[in-house]
Structure formats: C-alpha cells, structure tokens
C-alpha cells in the first residue's frame, strides 16, 4: 500500500476504533477525548501533504472538531468526525477526489 493510503487508513482507524467509541462512552469534554483529538490533529497536519485533494480540509476539520469538543457539542462533533471518516476511507481506497474536482 502506498504511504498516502496507508496513512489515511491509520488515521481512519484512530477515529473509528479509538475516538468514536470513547466519544460514545465518556463525557464529550473528557481529557481523554481531548487528547485523542489533539493527537489526530497533529497526525493530520503532518500527513496533509500526502493528500493533495483532502489534506488542508482535514486539518481544518480537525481544528473545528477540537473547538466542538471544548464547547461540549457531542452531536456536531460526532457528525464532523463521520465526514472525516468518509474522506479518510476514500483516500485509503485510492478514491481521493473531492466531489466536482477535476484532479
């Protein structure tokens, strides 16, 4: 698997297996949720250059997710993370074009 797809799959698993289950069980403002979001944000910022069509957007989404977590907005945070999952899955499958993009 190429590095971009592998990195996307690892990030996907971090959200799907690590972060979302904690978000269902813990208070949204729990420090463990905050720590996982912070780690995800760092990971996405480092790997963004691997994903030309999605990298910058994922960094922005991670930043917004951290804001929603600090505000205690579980519903919006969960919805945003599900969008992130969709993008990361598409990248990991090699289908990394944004809707309507030509590249």
TrEMBL record:
The lineage of its organism: Bacteria, Bacillati, Actinomycetota, Actinomycetes, Micromonosporales. This is Uncharacterized protein. It comes from Micromonospora eburnea.
């Amino acid at each position: 698997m190429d590095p971009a797809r592998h990195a996307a799959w690892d990030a996907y698993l971090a959200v799907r297996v690590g972060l979302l289950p904690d978000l269902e069980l813990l208070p949204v403002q729990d420090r463990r949720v905050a720590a996982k979001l912070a780690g995800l944000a760092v990971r996405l910022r480092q790997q963004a250059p691997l994903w030309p069509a999605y990298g910058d957007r994922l960094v922005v989404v991670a930043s917004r997710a951290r804001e929603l977590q600090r505000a205690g907005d579980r519903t919006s945070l969960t919805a945003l993370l599900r969008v992130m999952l969709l993008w990361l899955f598409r990248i990991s499958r090699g289908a990394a074009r944004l809707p309507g993009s030509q590249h």
